[in-house]
Each structure stands twice: as structure tokens, then as C-alpha cells.
Amino acid sequence: MVVESESERSSAVRRGLPWYAFGLANLAVILVLSLAFWWLLADPQWSPLGLYPQPITAALFWVILVTVFVGFNLEFAGFGRLKQPVRGVAAIAVIIVVAVLILIIFARGWGTFDPAFAAGREGGLGYQTASLFVLFGFLIFVMAVINWGHWPWSAVGLKQPWLGIAEIGVMTIPTFILFAFFALPGLASWAQPGHVIMEVNTTIGFFYSIVVSVIITGLLTENWPWRLAGPGGRTALASTIGNLVLGTVLYFILLGIAHLIMSPADIAALGSGVGVMAAEIGVCWAFWMILWANAFGNWPTKFTPVVNYVVRIVVTFVLGVLTFAVYSYWAAQNVLHEPQLVGSVYGNALGFIDWMVMFTLFYVVCLGSFGLPAMKAGAPAAAESTTEV
């Protein structure tokens, strides 16, 4: 880890940007990177690689999950002594290589024995089947960090990288159980209609709503109200039950928002698949929450906790809904050249908006907003410590 003198840090902060300018500068870099690499690697019309929608979407999901492993669970163990931008570039390179290896193992390895995961399955369904593991992984592995605080591994004195290794190893078990019960029955090659707990699109919408709950409480409300239950296992239990309840409520709220934004004809055309729209709006909200906590200093921080929390939730929610509307009704068709979903709705927000989440994690978290001035003294991040991803 690079150690700066106190005078160097103070000077850099004094020369830095106000919180809102720092956040907007990060957003501009993320937009440029996201669009440039989209047009090069994923765009269904402009990219020469022909990777859209699969396997590029599956690769994207695995990259995000491996980023969670490296940056959240392992807390960049092994990279701390490197200076930026070498540190960030090295972490990103490792993340991409590991993610691609996982993708290949599922599609070309496991898929050889089980056609449900095969790369050649029609419509890229083999890639989708395996990548749904990431949905449950993003829920379980992120919750273990930002809600549980690495409990119980931190409580027994484990240090990195062993803390992260233990966390990843143990939490893979509940992740796989959720995947086996809620995803495989609807997507496996042996799946039979009607023999599922939830239809696939409903599963995606419902569990992503719980992910949204985890991010709201872990980032915007600094683990409130779960932390009121007490330390360690009590917070972990409260957050697990609480996120399930809050996530269920959010699922219906987000579906309600979808019904307000989309026309009745578009809703009818989606039929039983309308549940996925909760996830599509949810991922737009999640993008802004992650960016807000890490690039906008989790503003505001100087009011009472309740006011701080409410303002953060309202601001990021409004930005998320607006992002969903702009993406679905304009950008997906005219900028990203994605195909029609139904009626006047285009694209899949779980693709491109997750693409922006990935570049947020790469640039802001892995690279530490390299190249931008620091946030000025007195800005939210300097005023109050928050739990960030």
C-alpha cells in the first residue's frame, strides 16, 4: 500500500473537487469507458465480434461476481502494495481472466456432460443458465460484507486473505442451494413446465429486489436498521430476515413503477415475464447507489442520520427510475443498437446498466478514480465514514 505524508494528503484534498464535481467527473469517465467498450465488444450492430447477447452478457455477470470476490470479500488482498494505476490494472486483469475461465469451465467443461450449460445450447441458454448463479452470488457474497461485516470470520480473528477465502468458500453453499432450487428447475435441460417454485423472470425480479435491499441498507443507511439488533450474529440474522422482507416489498413497488412507466400493451405483451422488470428498474437504482456511495461521497452526511438516509434513498431512486426510462425508451435503441423487447421498449437493462456497474467497480473501486483530483476537504466522504463497496 502506498503511504502518503499527512502534508501531501492535505494538499491534495485542498486542491480537490467539491463532492458533486468529483462524482460527476467519475460519472463522465464511466460513461465514456462504458460506451467505448460497448461499441467495440458488445454492440450488436457495430462490434465486429458478434458476442451479443451471449456470451458477452454471461461474461459480464461473472466479471461482476469475481470483482465482488476480489474487492469485497478479499478486500484486494495481495494488491495493496502496488501503486495506482498498476494496482487497479493488475486487479482488473486478474478479475477478467478468472471470470473468463469460470465461463469456459461451465460452457465447455460442465456443459460437455450437462447440456443445460452447454455453449452450443440454442439462444445462448447454456450461458444464461450458468450465469444465474451470479444473481444469488451477488446477493449472498455482498450481504456477507456490507450487512454482516464479514461475520463470523472477523469475530474469530481471521485476517486477509484467509478471511476472504473462508467467506467465499462457506457462502458458496447457500448460493448454490438457492441456484439449485430457484434457477435450475426453470432452465435446466430436464426442466418441465409447471415444476418450478418461481418462473425464471419472476425469480430474477424477486431476488434482484433483495439485492437492492442489501445495497440500500448496506450503503445508503449504513446498515440501519439491522445494526440495532446488536453486534455479530445478531446483525447478520436481522439483516438476512430483514432484507428478505424488505426485498419482497421492493419487488412489488418496483413492479408497480414498471406498470406506471410502461404502456398497458407492453405489460400485456410481457405476460408472465413482467416480473423481470423489477430487476431492470432495480439494477438502474443499484448503479446509482453504488456510484453515490463511492463517487459522490454518500451525500448528504451532515444532517441527522434519518435525513441523510432518506435523501440518499430518494435521490438515487429518482435517478434510477429516470435512467431506466431513458435507457429503455431511447438509449438502448438509438445509442446501443439493441433489439426490441416489446412495443416501444428496447434492450435489457440487466445487460448495459450492469456493464456500467462493472466499469464503476473497475474505475472507482479498483483504480481509485485514478487521474482525477481528490475530493475536497469538507466533502461528504471527508466528513463522515461510511461503509462502501
TrEMBL record:
Report the transmembrane regions from the record: 19-41, 56-76, 88-110, 130-150, 162-184, 204-224, 236-261, 267-288, 309-332, 352-372
- Has keyword Transmembrane? yes
The source's superkingdom equals Bacteria
> Is Membrane set as a keyword in this record?
yes
Keywords attached to this entry = Membrane, Transmembrane, Transmembrane helix
Q: What is this protein called?
A: AAT family amino acid transporter
**Source organism:** Pseudonocardia sulfidoxydans NBRC 16205
